[in-house]
Design goal:
Keywords: Oxidoreductase. This protein is α/β, with parallel strands linked by helices. It has 2 domains: 142 residues, Rossmann fold (3-Layer(aba) Sandwich), CATH 3.40.50.720; 174 residues, Dihydrodipicolinate Reductase, domain 2. The protein is built from 10 helices and 15 strands. Helix 2 links the parallel strand 1 and strand 2. The structure holds nicotinamide-adenine-dinucleotide.
Length: 364
């Protein structure tokens, strides 16, 4: 909302700056802030059950397009979200989105091995990109995605919704402000029981790996932002498979340790055979934890002084609004491609250590 002449001038300047980098800069005239338009690629579980409903709550971005390989899904989306026919694409004609001024941002919600291709195609079409985690299935792909978005002058954001979640922001604050002294140990684990053996998550060609790629990445993230430094070394161990047939393509359970330059250690576990969902930090004078930690809701936080009093929010709406606001204000977002790439480097080092029987390896 415009309150005074200074706000007006700031908005006008922003609109001018944004117009240099975005075809639809989000501002019509002063006082009339337009929302960015987003298209979802891949109308699976996360897009259908979390992202699209969250886009009904966002202030800075709204659902205007879909990209799907399954035509039978289209009527439901058209009816529910009033998507015009001109904003509906399939994987083949997707590149034509370059000519569509309704769409400013493309959100890639496909199986992991498809992230790089569609991020790069979206960037070439002149769109900003939000790409789900893990950003790619290799460091090399992640670097190519960042380069493509840079070349196109568009933002790349990764689907790290927890960077906008108040429970995780509190974990970051407690560490950063050393409320309990310096964090010395993080125990972070994330796993669940993977049901359907036919799902893409269990097939390496589509997933790029097992629970580490899918949910272990949250434990890596949690360790990094709760210690507040970048790890330099890893060790990792695979566990014997209890169902070698179902998990023939990927690891079933694994553990790993991250070693930080100040001597702090993170010890983590990830699995597809049982539920675990925890982020615990031991500091010099106390501890703080989330348990449950990584879900869309149901977080519970405690410190050595008592429960955290935090009101939950819609993480997906906060994440997409946060990224949209950064685009509108022409400044970097909180979860850029480089953040995803750091995790990919750690993941590659974990797999390499696991393959080398737990040898201590330097990251990157
Ligand atoms: P899903 O299986 O429910 O949906 C996948 C979508 O991709 C479907 O619409 C499917 O039709 C489409 N698809 C296209 N080609 C495919 C192929 N060859 N094989 C299988 N599906 C194909 O998966 P999802 O749970 O929505 O996950 C999609 C992405 O979102 C993944 O990268 C996942 O890691 C990520 N994700 C993130 C969160 C989060 O909290 N940030 C949560 C869930 C999923």
């Amino acid at each position: 909302m415009i309150h005074n002449r200074r706000d007006f001038l700031q908005l006008s300047a922003l609109a001018g700056a944004a117009a240099l980098t975005t075809p639809l800069a989000g501002f019509a005239w002063p006082g009339q802030q337009k929302k960015l338009g987003i298209a979802l690629i891949g109308l699976g579980g996360y897009a259908t059950n979390q992202l699209a409903p969250a886009l009904l709550q966002t202030q800075h971005i709204e659902l205007r397009g879909i990209v799907t390989g399954t035509p039978s899904k289209i009527p439901v989306w058209v009816e529910k979200y009033k998507i015009p026919e001109k904003n509906i694409y399939n994987y083949d004609n997707f590149d034509k989105i370059a000519d569509n001024k309704d769409i400013d941002v493309v959100y890639v919600v496909l199986p992991n091995s498809m992230h790089a291709e569609f991020t790069i195609r979206a960037a070439k079409a002149g769109k900003h990109v939000i790409c789900e985690k893990p950003m790619s299935v290799s460091v090399k792909e992640g670097e190519a995605m960042i380069a493509a978005c840079k070349k196109a002058g568009r933002q790349l954001a990764i689907g790290y919704r927890l960077h906008y979640d108040p429970f995780h922001l509190e974990m970051m604050r407690l560490s950063r402000e050393k409320v309990f002294g310096e964090v010395k140990l993080v125990e972070a684990s994330d796993g669940f029981r993977a049901g359907d053996p036919a799902q893409w998550r269990l097939h390496h060609a589509l997933s790029g790996g097992g629970p580490l790629m899918d949910v272990g990445i949250y434990a890596i993230q949690g360790a990094r932002y709760t210690i507040g430094l970048e790890p330099t070394y890893v060790t990792a161990q695979a566990f014997p498979k209890t169902d070698p047939q179902k998990f023939k393509d990927i690891e079933e359970s694994l553990a790993w340790q991250l070693y930080f330059p100040n001597g702090a250690i993170a010890n983590s576990f990830s699995t597809y055979i049982t539920n675990v969902n925890r982020l615990y930090a031991a500091a010099e004078k106390g501890w703080f934890e989330l348990n449950r930690a990584y879900g869309y809701k149901g977080q519970e936080g405690r410190t050595s002084q008592g429960p955290m009093q935090i009101t939950p929010i819609n993480q997906q709406a906060a994440h997409m609004d946060g990224v949209a606001k950064a685009i509108l204000e022409n400044r970097p977002n909180n979860v850029p491609g480089e953040e995803g790439l750091r995790d990919m480097k750690i993941i590659e080092a974990i797999y390499a250590s696991m393959a080398a029987a737990g040898k201590k390896l330097k990251i990157g």
